[in-house]
## 1
Amino acid sequence: MSATIKYQSIINLAEVLGFKDLKAIEKNGILYITGMANSEADKQMVWDAYSKIDPEMRGGDLIMNIDVNPLAAPKEIIYEVVKGDSLSKIAKNYPGISWKDIYEANKNIIKNPDLIHIGWKLKIPVK
């Protein structure tokens, strides 16, 4: 399997997150991904996706050089609640964000932080 196919989900995620100057070039079985993320959280999401594919990061077939755009305006992330979610569980997906941060950003929807419903679209604050 080529490295591009192996890591296609990472490339797709970077595209969805709107990475600037995103390039994915495979040479001699090694995939080089470069680009500029809009936030540290977006950059971390890409690294987290990589760690799911290669948990020990020993594959030796991917080199990522991802910077964070210092001029990028913070953006809002929208998360749709799925079965089994809690604010704490959701917060674990976003480095630097606590369940309280999510609760505060969504007080107009969430009346009780211990009770959220499938299908709710929650704002995840970007820090």
## 2
Amino acid sequence: MEDKPFIFINCAMSIDGKISTHERRQVKISNKRDMERVDRLRASADAILVGMNTAVEDDPRLTVKSEKLRKERVERSMPENPIKVTLGRVDRLNLDSEFMTHGNARVILFASEDSDALKIEELKNSAEIFLLPGERPEPEKVVKVLASLGVRRLMIEGGGRINFEFLKAGLVDEFYVAIAPKLFGGKNAPTLADGEGFQEGKEVRLELIGEEKLDEILVLRYRVK
């Protein structure tokens, strides 16, 4: 795809590849040093994208915590915080949520065409909304719109289904994964890449290009081949 942003995924997981427990709630996986690393990654991004379930159920702030990093962004003629992006059916989004309000950040919603029309009207004053066909807006169309809006670096922070969809579409350039010495187990616990999975011979191949140990957390950086 021409003019595609540089797209990277950042994810924290247990040693058995789970990004949460079988209860499918937000859990603490990273440590303080790893969260500082994530903050630097956020500060480098023009936009941060999460799936609708993550936006609604985890209600992430997706802002840069460090005042120093926010100042540096402003000095580079960037807003203090990256654009927040999510996609899917917008019916469950809360106007007063941290995702929608925290950090005075620009919010872009890629709403599926089956979203409630009244909810879309309600959200219009707080976010830019692009109505896309299908139950799940296609990653290629999302990326094309973001590129047209000037997004050059896009960070994806999950969940597992969004990670899978962007990887399947061949849009991801790099992958950061923080591995914690925890074991969650559970066949229904969400993983780093959910969805229907890849067939043998069509799996995503990665090249290790960096590693870092942050106390008990091991961070691996991969290039997507």
